[in-house]
Amino acid sequence: MRSNHLFNKNAKDIDAIIFCEFDVHLGPILKHQYPENYVTKETFESLSVYLIPKPELYGKLITITAFGMKILGYPVSITDAKYQRNQLIFNLCFVFSHFTSTTQYEPIIQKLAHYLIDLEGEMGFISKKDIEPELPNYLVTIRDHLNAYGVCTIRISLSTTIHLKLTKVQTNPRQVEDYHVPILNSNHFNAKNIGQWDLTTQQIYYYIDGVNHVSKIAFLADVDINLAKACIQNLIYYGLVSLVPIFLYSNVYVTTPEIRSLLANPMLRDECLRAVRKDGSIVEPSLKKILQLYSNMCPGMTVKDLCQRFYPHSNGIDEQKLIKFGIMKGIIRRIQKYPILLDEPIDEEPDSYARVSSPTVTQSMIMNRSASSPQSNTSTSHYSKNICTYFDGKHSYDQLCCEFNRTHQEIEEKVEKNPAVVVCWK
Fold first, then answer.
1. CA angle, 229 as apex, 224 and 392 as ends, to 5°?
2. pTM of the model
C-alpha cells in the first residue's frame, strides 16, 4: 500500500470506492475501483474473506481496519435461479484513512446497497454485461460529489434516481441530571413517529411537558431513573428534546448577548411572538414588551418581582413560556444558588433534611413539591446524610431539592438557620 494512506489531508473524505463480487470460478474478485489501483491485488486477497464474508454477515454493515485503511461495506446476496449457483453476491465499499470516523457514511452505504438490489431486479444492472460497464462511471460520480458537496444525485433510468446525502454527525449531548426539565422541540417533533419509539421512551413521553423534571417523570412513568435519563439523552441527540431548569417564581435570570438576535433575526422574532403568547389572551404580545421583560432580568430580580412590576399577562405574555423560549434560544440564562459551608455548623440540630431513600414515597408528596425528587436514589437500602455535607459550592438548590426531596423554601430555611453557610450565585 502507498504510505500516504496514513497521512491523508482530507481524512473525512472518501479515499476510494471499490466494488467486489463473488465469481463462481475465481471466488472473490475486485471488479471495479476508483481511483484505479488504489487497493492492490495483494491487499484485496488478504481482505477478501471479510469483503465477501460468510452468509451470516450478508445484509449487515461491516467495517474493516487494516493496511492503513478503513473499509465500510454492506455485503449483499440475491437468491435467484437465473444466477449460477442460484446466488449473486457483491459488496460496494467506501475506503477511508484508518483514523476516519465513518458513522455518517453508514446510512449511505446501506442505501446504496439497496439501490443496487432494486436496479439488479429491475434491469440486471450488475449481472448483465451490456449494462455493467456503466457502474465504474457511477462510482466516480458518487465519490467526487459526496466529497465535494456532501450530496449526490444520479439518474439511472426513467424510474430510478439515486439520491445520497451526508448527514451531520451530532456531538454527544450533555449529561442529563435528575433536576433537569426536558421540553419537546416543536420544530423537530412529529407526534406520528411516537409509535416507532421503544416502549420506555413512549412511557416517559407523556410526562415531558416542560414542567416535570427528570426524576418526577421517571416516578410518574414508573421507569428506572437511569433508564429515563438514557431515553431523554437519546431524544436530545436527535434534536427532539431540550433541557431547561426547573421553573420557579423565585428563579433569577440574566440576559446574554444573544438578545440582539431578536432584533436582527425576523424569523426568530416572529417565532418568539407566537411562542410566548398567553393562551386565551385577546392581547397580542409586542416585541417592545418582550424586550422590556428580558432586559430587566438581572441579579436580584426574581420572576415574581418581574411579574409584579410589568404585569406580563396584561400584555398577552405568559411568563413561563417567555422564560422557556429565552432559555432554549440562549437569550437568557439561569443564575443558580450554591450554598457553601465555611466552617463546622454551630449548634447543629438533628438534621430533619437527611437524605433518605424510601420506596414508600406517596403520590401527594411528589405532586405537592415542584422541585422534589422521589427517585433521587434507586438503591433499596435506607441511609441518611447531613445536608450540610452537600454545601460545597458544587450543588445547586435545584440539585439539593431533588437529592433530598425538599422544596426550595425548605432548603433556604436550612441555609438561613446556619450562620456558617453562605450562598454563591453563579
1. 100
2. 0.55
